[in-house]
Predict the 3D structure of the following.
Amino acid sequence: MSFLDILVKQNVISKDDVPYILEEAKTSNQSVEDVLRSKQISATVILKAKSDFLNIPTKEIDPQKISFDVLKYIPEESATHYKIIPLAIDGGVLEVGIVDPENIEARDALNFISNKTNLPFKIFLISEDDFMQALNAYNGLSGEVSKALDDLETEFSAEEVEMMKDRGDLGVAPAVGGAPNIIEDAPVTKIVATILRYAIEGGVSDVHIEPMKEKVRVRFRVDGVLYTSIVLPAKVHDALIARIKILSNIKLDEKRKPQDNRFSARIDGRKIDFRVSTFPTYYGEKIEMRILDQQKSVQKLSELGFPERNLKLIKEALNKSYGLILISGPTGSGKTTTLYSMIKELDLEENNVLSLEDPVEYNIEGMSQSQVRPEIGYTFANGLRTTLRQDPDIIMVGEIRDKETAELAIQAALTGHLVLSTIHTNSAVGIIPRLVDMGIDPYLIAPTLILGMAQRLVGKAQTSAVASVPIEGSTKIMLDKYLEEIPNDYRSVIPDAKEVYKINPTPDCPRGTKGRIAVTEMFEVDKKMEEIILKEPTELAITSYARTQGMILMKEDAVIKALNKVIPIEEIGKV
């Protein structure tokens, strides 16, 4: 039995027509559906018969309503090959349109995608025409880039492309004096411009262009998570790299060692800075671009998500005339953003505020910002020496990386300056042992360090993509375990919540989060803490006393934010 028998029952075709239809499909190398359509049987009737036969529902498709976030779950290459298309996310289930549900390979591909994304799927039968229309939903970034790729193919012959690739100047024309001029209407220029524009529109923080064996992968980082945005043919790799190198004034002929620089562009009327870094890999140079939007204002401290106690400690520390404030955390944990927000709390009119940064990410009016350049001997340590001759009141040092920088920062704090900086440790209390490991004597740390803090970033709940779940069973056991070590004197900070948010993906927000917020922990250095630093500067001793001060750990801060429905419960595990 086939769906043709259903059409017979519906008197759409006769029983005698069936063998002729099957024979015509075989001899003409067409599908049975194509033969039926040639006999003026509508696609809707055919699709309904197949749906009844296979017991699979159909679904109307509007390509305009298929969001880019949903399309990310199935790459365009896979969608085209298996004739499957992601349509929406409903109730945490990925809805997929499929042309041939009996295609075992397509089913296997869907199972693989489901296991990889941890999302169950539900299939809907769609026609070939609907599928081709739905494919147009991919024609955002990839559509524009594909057109530019076509232009690239037609603009140069194969021999010219190879020759230009060898020279490393595809998309570039030699100018008078040998300096390169950019061909502004070259296809590769359009590809780069399109990638950057979509990155800006999508709120992307970083763009990664990565050469692989047979392709070039372009990935966007949004809210700390990397997503493959588009895959390009390997033959355009050299052209892309050359174009970006020219924009950022990086040597074209140096491919064996990393290089970095930056460039600015005006996109949609906004001035955007791009920090560019190259990295030699097995298949060629990889490029990473950090996007720095100068028109995005630095957030206020009160907007960063600090608990009331922590916000009070920061403001008290910033009001002191001298001392050292240190923020710890891994790369990408928002340390620099917090430093900028702290600077914005200061009186930049009455104080001489200077910074040493690598790189300068945002320009703050009223602060003298300087970019260190280790390659020419201008390091944080050398910069600090110069800074102290500039009559500073407040100094921001991008990072304390070595003993020399640490010693100079502490010297500056001892001689009447307020110094703000970052350091790499896993926790707030780890700051002191880290300084000791660098070779700094505890008797210098005790009188200078006034505030130590650590932070991470977690995703903020998008209320349209989360669901409330009661705090009971395993959820309650997990939350209670995280909070069991909070000192009794400070348990009042735990909200009396009955439910928390759990991610419930939607087509507009498959991740369930939008934007990020800091979870923090911090301690102040009072007289008692100074004694501990002098006598026993271990993490255990420091943590023990910091807890009596009321220090809430980062994991506990994340739980409290989940109980307040600021973040979904899944984000706790990222701390």
Observations:
- The two ends are 56 Å apart (CA to CA).
- The first strand starts at residue 84 and ends at 90.
- The chain is about 40% helix and 25% strand.
